[in-house]
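pasting for ref. prot 1 ->
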Amino acid sequence: MSSKPSPGARIAAALRRFPIYVDPSYASALPAADRRRLAARLKKMPVPTFIVLVPLVQGGTWNDDKQLATVVHSRLGRDGIFVTFHESTDELMGHEWGGDHAADDAAWAVNWDDSLDGASLAARLTRLTDLIASGTATKVYQQESAEIDRKYQAHLKSSAPRPAKDDGGAGLALPLAAGGAGVAVAAVAGVLLWRRRRMAAVRRTAGEGLLLPRTVFATAGKASEDQLREQASREVIAFGELLDGSTAPDGERAGALMTRALDAYQAAAKTLDGAKGVPDLAGVLVLLDQGRDALASARALSEGKGEVPPSPLCFFNPLHGDGPDEVDWRPLGSRRRLHVHACRACARAARARETPDMLMDRRDGRDVPYFEADPARSVWAETGYGQLRDDLIHRILRGDLNKR
């Protein structure tokens, strides 16, 4: 007696006959006529492209889009682009095997396109496929991301609290001001996108004014250490002002997140004060990113919304920004295999068994990848900037930065 095929096998079997699979619960969202029109467009795509629309529910058949796409790709046995929902029917996600056609950029360009708010699912899928087919997905994504950054900076500038003339510098920013207020924050050329943020359960919109600004040096090699220090100093001050203007949130979980945000601020300020090079300054930005995510989640919970899911940074160099790709990677000469998040370029290099663009650390008179430093002497190597361990903030506060 043959066993019943798995959900992944059933979807793969359906995709061999028709490139679009829609769960019955979403049938009305993408009617049959729309599916036929989309299928005709998929025939003109540069690589095989499949659309799989099923519910994603924690504890259900499919927990998340990555699991769904990975299983269906494996069962289908064919490389290409797999388009799924992200965490709701309002957001799409692009996954790709065997090529690089910026499917994820295309998906987020659609998710962030204000002109598509309220548009039909068919219209959004059509736009996504057009971006991939035209080769403009990354360009459009970057334009939309830059516009969000512009609005964020304008909002931050207009809403930043102005200290009273005789406040004596009181507030959460005081510890930093005492040690770093004299640092002149210069206009630094060559700044690019700091984060490639995913839009998740809570939209990371410019109006929130809480998440880490996206402008920072593309890599440490494109800016001097002094310039990076100025950028880190400015971001610590800005986060301190945000915290100083925040009220205590309601609820146990929101309170715990607020405490984490405060701890991250203190850890970032402490790291900045003792920073001895680019790896430490990168750590400042990582800690600020964790703190701002916690603050945004605390405020979201207080407003009856969901938490802001954190986006892991690139393991190989956090200054690359978000690490949307997951890779299994084994350092040279090590038997330990790591499952880490990486930016697209580093993930591509790691999968090709090439050397990713790693953040270097100066140890014993020579430059080595930061994660190859002695963990007993480097909190960044020990924690992978928070990817290998989730207690980075605690370790900084207890003084691990000075154990070198």
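and prot 2 ->
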Amino acid sequence: MTSRVVVIGAGIGGLTAAIALRAAGHEVEVYDQATTFGAIGAGVSLGANGTRLMDRLGLGPALREVGSDLHRIQFHEWRTGELFYEHPMGDWYTDRFGAPFLGLHRADLQQVLLDAFRAGGGEVRLGRRCVAIDETPARVDVTFADGSTAHADVLIGADGVRSTVRQHVAGPDEAVFAGMSCFRGLVPVDRVPGGDRMGLTFFLGPVSHLVVYPVRCGELINFVAYTRDAAWTDESWSAKGDASQAVAAFEGFNDTVLAMLGAVEDTGRWALFDREPLRQWSTGRVTLLGDAAHPMLPHAGQGSNQAVEDVAVLAHFLGQPDLTVADALAAYETVRKPRARQLQLGSRGNAKCFQVPDGPEAQARNERLANLPDMVSWIHSYDVHAELRAAAPA
């Protein structure tokens, strides 16, 4: 089944979908409301469950060229910086899960995807904000804010947590403030004490924690610094923070953290909002993927990986000649919803693990980390194509 596909959103999920579907012979157009491509979001990580799928699309070499192989995972005490848990990644991780764990600058990842899409003749149409969707049994019509239109057999909403396409599919939903905001930024590695030795690094405190890892082949250190804060409620990746605010919010943390937060030149800040899993991802000719389908708190580090998994399953079913569009979208949703829901709900629980009071609770948490590789194996070892083969009729 070859279709004319319109993708709304030129982020990681949207571009990966465009590449996969074009490779499968579909005619693909991509639209995004942004007028330019930027570096919003700073760092992003791809675990083996995402990297393996990128490899199948032929993108692995380009990603390894711009990324950082996260060679170890470390957990540090917040005040002293003392290392209390460490486990190798690097070759150990690749041997166990079949692909590396990469830290990437979001702009680098997006450029790799753009280059691949354009190399196949694709074009991203910028400045196109979707404002209306008209779906009939035969096709989908999309209207943009500038008055232009697009027509498709299949419409994919990859337009993020504030998805317009999701409104068409599932109606309005309610975002619930999680009581937490986070600062994010990039710092040159030579301005972070011990930065050249960092892999995937956590600093865990009672009401705040940081996730830190290198990107751009180790040239930069990416941080995301989470703190409980009832006042900051701006859910925007483009909202600006201030280094002095970040330093003040993490008063009492060790010198490495404070030096890193103080050295950043451009700090973003956004509030975390949670949403319940959707009951429905698709209509007859419209579906969702990535954050538009299953927005999740970032505490499992799986947002981008789950979008890539979505793409693999969606491309599989849209490529089945015996399925109608509606049947293909229904099958995609059936396969993907249970895993996405599990990770959505699990991400909520991780915040409680990362931020616990000093004393017995923290000690118990630290002891549980000894089992970390086995606890997360179900996430990183997941093989979309193996599941599809197992589910296929004999």
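The chain is about 35% helix and 25% strand.
Residues 325-354 form the longest helix (30 residues).
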